[in-house]
Amino acid sequence: MQIKGLNHFLFSVTDLDKSITFYQHIFGAKLLVKDRKTAYFDLKGLWLALNGEDDMPRHTHIACLEHWGKELCANL
Protein backbone atom coordinates (compact mmCIF):
# COMPACT_ATOMS: atom_id res chain seq x y z
CA MET A 1 0.00 0.00 0.00
CA GLN A 2 1.21 3.47 -0.85
CA ILE A 3 -0.05 6.60 0.91
CA LYS A 4 -1.34 9.17 -1.60
CA GLY A 5 -2.14 12.04 0.75
CA LEU A 6 -3.20 13.19 4.18
CA ASN A 7 -6.86 13.57 5.09
CA HIS A 8 -6.66 15.09 8.56
CA PHE A 9 -4.89 15.37 11.88
CA LEU A 10 -6.73 15.00 15.18
CA PHE A 11 -5.06 15.98 18.44
CA SER A 12 -6.32 15.69 22.00
CA VAL A 13 -5.58 18.76 24.10
CA THR A 14 -6.14 19.70 27.73
CA ASP A 15 -6.71 23.43 27.12
CA LEU A 16 -8.84 23.94 24.01
CA ASP A 17 -8.81 27.74 24.02
CA LYS A 18 -5.03 27.94 24.47
CA SER A 19 -4.56 25.36 21.69
CA ILE A 20 -6.85 27.29 19.34
CA THR A 21 -4.75 30.42 19.87
CA PHE A 22 -1.56 28.44 19.26
CA TYR A 23 -2.68 26.95 15.93
CA GLN A 24 -4.11 30.26 14.73
CA HIS A 25 -1.04 32.34 15.56
CA ILE A 26 1.80 29.89 14.92
CA PHE A 27 0.42 28.02 11.88
CA GLY A 28 -2.11 30.52 10.50
CA ALA A 29 -4.92 27.97 10.84
CA LYS A 30 -8.42 29.25 10.02
CA LEU A 31 -10.95 28.29 12.69
CA LEU A 32 -14.01 26.80 10.99
CA VAL A 33 -16.11 25.47 13.89
CA LYS A 34 -15.78 25.52 17.67
CA ASP A 35 -17.98 24.08 20.35
CA ARG A 36 -17.47 23.21 24.02
CA LYS A 37 -15.02 20.31 23.47
CA THR A 38 -13.89 20.47 19.82
CA ALA A 39 -12.44 22.83 17.26
CA TYR A 40 -11.99 22.33 13.52
CA PHE A 41 -9.53 24.25 11.34
CA ASP A 42 -8.50 24.63 7.74
CA LEU A 43 -4.72 24.50 7.82
CA LYS A 44 -3.83 25.56 4.28
CA GLY A 45 -6.08 22.88 2.77
CA LEU A 46 -5.51 20.27 5.47
CA TRP A 47 -8.22 19.53 8.01
CA LEU A 48 -7.11 19.83 11.65
CA ALA A 49 -9.32 18.80 14.57
CA LEU A 50 -8.73 19.38 18.28
CA ASN A 51 -10.54 17.44 21.01
CA GLY A 52 -10.53 18.93 24.47
CA GLU A 53 -10.02 16.11 26.97
CA ASP A 54 -9.33 16.36 30.67
CA ASP A 55 -8.66 12.69 31.32
CA MET A 56 -6.92 9.83 29.54
CA PRO A 57 -7.24 7.98 27.26
CA ARG A 58 -6.58 10.51 24.55
CA HIS A 59 -7.56 9.97 20.96
CA THR A 60 -4.91 11.35 18.63
CA HIS A 61 -4.35 10.20 15.08
CA ILE A 62 -3.31 11.09 11.56
CA ALA A 63 -5.56 9.90 8.75
CA CYS A 64 -3.98 9.15 5.38
CA LEU A 65 -5.45 8.32 2.00
CA GLU A 66 -4.33 5.23 0.13
CA HIS A 67 -4.59 4.84 -3.62
CA TRP A 68 -8.25 3.74 -3.58
CA GLY A 69 -9.30 6.77 -1.57
CA LYS A 70 -9.95 4.75 1.58
CA GLU A 71 -9.05 6.41 4.83
CA LEU A 72 -6.33 4.72 6.83
CA CYS A 73 -5.91 5.93 10.39
CA ALA A 74 -2.67 5.56 12.25
CA ASN A 75 -2.98 6.03 16.00
CA LEU A 76 -0.07 7.76 17.67
From TrEMBL:
Pfam families: Glyoxalase (PF00903). Residues 5-76 form the VOC domain. Signal peptide: none annotated. Gene3D superfamilies: 2,3-Dihydroxybiphenyl 1,2-Dioxygenase, domain 1. It comes from the Bacteria. This is VOC domain-containing protein.
